[in-house]
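Revision sheet: structure tokens.
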Amino acid sequence: MKNSYYIRNPNICFRNEKTHCVSYLIDDFFHMPEFFSLIGSSDVIFILLFDGKKPCIQVFKEYAYLFNVSYDSEDELFEKYSKKMQNLAKELKISPLFIESSTLSYDTIEATNKLYNIKDFVISSKVQLEALNRVGFRLSSPASINFNVTTICDFSCKYCYHQLLPITDYISIERFDEIAKELYNGQCESVLLSGGNPILRSDFDELVKVLAKNNLYYTISTKSVIPEQRLNYWHFDCNMKAIQISLDSLNNEIVNQHLGISDDNYVEKIITMIKFLISIGVRVRVKCVITSKNIHTIIDMVKVLSDIGVETIVLTEYGRTFYRHSDDLFPTSEQFKKVNKDLQELVKNDFYSTKIDKSVLTSLYRQPIRKTTDTVEEMFSHRVACSTGRFSLNMLPNGELTICENLPYNKRFILGDLRKESLTECWNGVKMKEWLSPPPRNIFDDKQPCKTCKQEWYEICHSVYSRCLRFCNETFLNVDTIDISCPKADFEQYRVQ
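Predicted:
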């Protein structure tokens, strides 16, 4: 390994937040950032030194020189920093963190090396000390934004999670252009255009033109059959690189039942559209929701989509939704067993180059943890920090920012209004600070454990993680409750997938 040539994973990104650095990984399709971690500036520099053009031992020597580290032999240096490579991968939860340069193209290596300048990540150790000792953190500006373009939809999907309340007071194109500039200047990595059905918004084409003009990576997710002329416009004039198409089966009757439509040629038209997108160079990902009604048709669909060149197929188990739900859509254990066996055989076949994003399908139940806890680590071992206000934003059609698109529309959940405030003002505003801080305990009734929770735990719960209001609402029909992932939460187990 001493003489092996490595480069960092091209999808890992860094930010210098002035008092600390942050690392994260970019999703290869949506370009969405994930796995955020605090990282020391010296560790960022260590990773950036791997440029794929010099052997490991040379990288180690350069790092030792930069940080005035003495060593007696090459073997000692190699052992020390090869361990550092392994430890960083574990700490950042990124695998692989380093990649042999021989497995990447010249263009990929050059693009990766041009992305950052090592000098931009030099921070005084004194300035960093306090920041790196914090448990929770947030970015100085959002790394991604989920833009709920419209709440209008021409489908009536049996599994839709959206309330679809009519919000017709759309943010203007002129104002959206100003926001897009702020997003770009704030290092926003990705804009996901969702809905409703996003393409039904009358000024949708102008929206994507604004995103392209401001060099923002965006992805469209839709079920609609879109004319080729419009697809050409998005790709060639508005720099659309990828699109997610939803398709649940090749059986028209099943698809019509799933989507609540009546179109005997829907599947044929979607397949024709996918072929056209691939032919003009657009990356296509197909999402399929698995229910008891279509599970027996999945294998045939995967084969056809792979044959025509679909890059990724995402298989998602039907999930319980707050507004539309029917238990009969849950597949049985026998159905899962059969399709999993067939999928495993399919994945083994090298002929199918399409990536299947879920190789094992299973039932999932939401149930209380019911665990005695004595330490902070045990108390929060099942918690995941809500990204809203920390790393990302959710924008409604009218420019308001909501805690979660899965929550009902309520002014209580609005964290800012981009029609009236700048992105920075919203990100650092009073409402956002309230969301990221412990609420008054009097919002909880006397039966809620939050009422008497230890102050240290109460602070961490809300400042570091935030309660998942969506799951609170779905489980208790009330958001002023304990987080369902808290060991003190108690409720009846129920199936969610």
